[in-house]
């Protein structure tokens, strides 16, 4: 894996956004060959989305030939609810960029047949040629998407019941009322994300530090599902200093020492204006 | 990008780089319009996988709901109360000109007139939506003749009337028809007015109190029967008195039925009301304030003598008097001038000033589901303003109907 450590949240968000930008621009997507991007929600990637919007507004990045697949969505929450992941993606990303609405895919948590919806989603990903880069986050319990502790590490898109930890963590978006937080979600599986050509996990904040430690310094374990990516050929973890607080000094020093190598991935930063 | 037609073939316009008035705040958001109505872009994106057909760069302008003037007697030489063969030509002329002031809907107002005038004029103008030819007509505002003689102001005394026992009979006898009438101003102290107020309410006509010497309890009684507006607060009514606040007391009355609001018109031209009085009213009851022009024939015309109803008026600067007296006969300020003056005199926010000219009159007339606001589904009647609240462009049903020269 690459472990990219930046000083703070802003710098981590910027690094991640630049990486995504370079990957898309370098790929030279076209009508015949779309760039497929997997996307997360939550407070961690918010800064990254802001930066990507900036890049789009300055004319350096276009999403015209990008197809996106979000990781998850609550079950039973009306799509227009301000906390639905559809609302999040519209307000924080889609409405500011030039993506074709037909290419923005999010699981429908209000589908009549949830299982069919999940299977169809897997097929859509396959039809799009698989995911080129899957961006994700990590929960305090080490989950990727809503693959809660105990999820199979080869799982596919399916319905999951949320763990208590996750419900508590999300309560802040529902007026701190636990009873208002949805209890189920549709989520891509660990296996679904593992199928991507490349995986980038964003981890910021001290409250995620223990999960990061479990994910990269301990073994592959279905109790900390992000650990599955130890077995992926191309994983990048982008984090800030605070997220490394539970790691060994040796690990942090080693990867910090590699920053000059990592930074070559984002410097120079590419632009469609130069194409 | 491939074609996005799904729910409707109509072109989708996206207003960008603007600050829109939504949920009582100016917000940096794009405004989407289709089929003459405000469109929900999120629904468009997810349900229809649709996107804009054309983008309009607003250059940082404020986008507000088009202004609604519920009291305007004429302008540009046209007097709505003057009987003539082609009333609609006069209404159309004014309707077209007021687009320049950001007004997208209005109530042509008739002052106290003889029944013959009402019978001739009322049937000639139907309620209709606006467009490139002019602002929409929401219905007539009939100010009089059932008003107080003592507080008639510029209204001709010989045409004033009272309610005989039937009440409603007098209404129909005087006006002929209420089909295209949005509002009636009357004096509630007139005997038998209560049943008239109820009748008008039942017919969907807004009842306003004005040109009256009513005390507070008579006014409250009228509100209980359905009255919901005060015509040009402070003018043509008893002044506020601390032991009987009169009609002015409605602003803070505790006798208003639950769930109902009493609105009040203010002519914020700097002449009809002292700024301190304006502030007292605004601070006492900000959500009820409705900006009106009460504009007369001479609005838009040069100084001199002009006709209003059955009377003659004299224009001097921004003042309009009954010729030969010091009685104000109406205002010649335009709606956008009133919005600017109100904001400056009341020291209120831009949002408050804009809502007093659009949202509040829409609520008064019970049409706020489609006018006076930029919520999804509302009519796309818009006014684009610069930071000084000067009108740059006016739209009706999403179509540009007036643009200021640079």
TrEMBL record, chain A:
SUPFAM superfamilies registered for this protein in UniProt: NagB/RpiA/CoA transferase-like
Subcellular location: Cytoplasm
CDD domains to which the protein is assigned, alphabetical: GlcN6P_deaminase
PROSITE patterns per UniProt: GLC_GALNAC_ISOMERASE (PS01161)
EC number annotated for this UniProt entry: 3.5.99.6
Presence of the UniProt keyword ATP-binding in the record: no
Catalytic activity: alpha-D-glucosamine 6-phosphate + H2O = beta-D-fructose 6-phosphate + NH4(+)
GO molecular function, one term: glucosamine-6-phosphate deaminase activity
Assembly with partners or alone: Homohexamer.
Family: Belongs to the glucosamine/galactosamine-6-phosphate isomerase family.
Name of the protein: Glucosamine-6-phosphate isomerase
Protein species of origin: Xiphophorus maculatus (Southern platyfish)
TrEMBL record, chain B:
Pathway assigned to this chain's UniProt record: Amino-sugar metabolism; N-acetylneuraminate degradation
Cofactors that this protein relies on: a divalent metal cation
Cofactor binding note of this UniProt entry: Binds 1 divalent metal cation per subunit.
One Gene Ontology MF term: metal ion binding
Residues annotated as binding substrate: 154, 235-236, 243, 272, 328-330
UniProt entry tagged with the keyword DNA-binding: no
Annotated family: Belongs to the metallo-dependent hydrolases superfamily. NagA family.
Entry protein name: N-acetylglucosamine-6-phosphate deacetylase
Organism expressing this protein natively: Xiphophorus maculatus
């Amino acid at each position: 894996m690459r472990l990219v450590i930046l000083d703070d949240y802003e710098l981590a968000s910027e690094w991640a956004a630049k990486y995504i930008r370079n990957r898309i621009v370098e790929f030279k997507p076209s009508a015949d060959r779309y760039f497929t991007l997997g996307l997360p929600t939550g407070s961690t990637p918010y800064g990254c989305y802001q930066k990507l919007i900036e890049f789009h507004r300055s004319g350096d990045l276009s999403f015209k030939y990008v197809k996106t697949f979000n990781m998850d969505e609550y079950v039973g929450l009306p799509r227009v609810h301000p906390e639905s992941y559809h609302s999040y993606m519209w307000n924080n990303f889609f409405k500011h960029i030039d993506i074709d609405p037909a290419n923005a895919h999010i699981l429908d948590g209000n589908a009549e047949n949830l299982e069919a919806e999940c299977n169809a989603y897997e097929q859509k990903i396959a039809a799009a040629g698989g995911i080129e880069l899957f961006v994700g986050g990590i929960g305090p319990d080490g989950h990727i998407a809503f693959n809660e502790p105990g999820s199979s590490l080869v799982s596919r898109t399916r319905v999951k019941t949320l763990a208590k930890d996750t419900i508590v963590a999300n309560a802040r978006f529902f007026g701190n009322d636990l009873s208002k937080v949805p209890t189920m979600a549709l989520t891509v599986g660990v296996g679904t994300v593992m199928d991507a050509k490349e995986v980038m996990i964003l981890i910021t904040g001290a409250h995620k530090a223990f999960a990061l430690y479990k994910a990269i310094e301990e073994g592959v374990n279905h109790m900390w599902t992000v650990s599955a990516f130890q077995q992926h050929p191309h994983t990048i973890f982008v984090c800030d200093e605070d997220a490394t607080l539970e790691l060994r000094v040796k690990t942090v020093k080693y990867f910090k020492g590699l920053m000059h190598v990592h930074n070559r991935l984002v410097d120079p930063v590419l632009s469609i204006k130069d194409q | 990008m491939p074609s996005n037609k799904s729910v409707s073939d109509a072109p989708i316009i996206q207003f960008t780089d603007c600050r829109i008035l939504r949920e009582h705040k100016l917000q940096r958001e794009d405004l989407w319009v289709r089929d003459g109505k405000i469109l929900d872009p999120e629904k468009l994106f997810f349900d229809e996988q649709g996107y804009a057909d054309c983008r309009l760069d607003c250059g940082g302008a404020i986008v507000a709901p088009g202004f609604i003037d519920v009291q305007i007697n004429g302008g540009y030489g046209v007097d709505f109360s003057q009987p003539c063969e082609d009333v609609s030509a006069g209404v159309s002329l004014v309707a077209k000109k007021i687009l320049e002031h950001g007004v997208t809907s209005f109530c042509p107002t008739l002052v106290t007139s003889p029944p013959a005038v009402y019978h001739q004029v009322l049937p000639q103008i139907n309620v209709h939506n606006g467009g490139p030819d002019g602002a929409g007509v929401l219905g007539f505002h009939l100010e009089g003749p059932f008003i107080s003689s003592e507080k008639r102001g510029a209204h001709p005394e010989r045409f004033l009337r009272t309610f005989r026992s039937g009440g409603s009979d007098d209404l129909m006898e005087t006006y002929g028809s209420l089909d295209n009438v949005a509002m009636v101003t009357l004096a509630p102290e007139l005997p038998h007015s209560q049943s008239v107020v109820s009748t008008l309410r039942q017919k969907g006509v807004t009842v306003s109190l004005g040109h009256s010497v009513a005390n507070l309890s008579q006014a409250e009684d009228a509100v209980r029967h359905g009255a919901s507006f005060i015509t040009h607060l402070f003018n043509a009514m008893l002044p506020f008195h601390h032991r009987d606040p009169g009609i002015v007391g409605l602003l803070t009355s505790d006798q208003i039925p639950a769930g109902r609001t009493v609105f009040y018109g203010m002519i914020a031209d700097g002449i009809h009301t002292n700024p301190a009085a304006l502030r007292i009213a605004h601070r006492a009851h900000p959500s009820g304030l409705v900006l009106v022009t009460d504009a007369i024939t001479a609005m838009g015309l040069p100084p001199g003598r002009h006709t209003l109803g059955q009377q003659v008026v004299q224009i001097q600067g921004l003042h309009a008097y009954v010729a030969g007296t010091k009685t104000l006969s109406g205002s010649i300020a335009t709606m956008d001038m009133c919005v600017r003056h109100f904001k400056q005199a009341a020291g209120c926010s831009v949002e408050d000033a804009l809502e007093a000219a659009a949202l509040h009159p829409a609520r008064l007339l019970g049409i706020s589901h489609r006018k006076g606001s930029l919520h999804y589904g509302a009519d796309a009647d818009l006014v684009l303003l610069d930071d000084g609240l000067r009108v740059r462009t006016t739209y009706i049903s999403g179509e540009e109907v007036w643009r200021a020269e640079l």
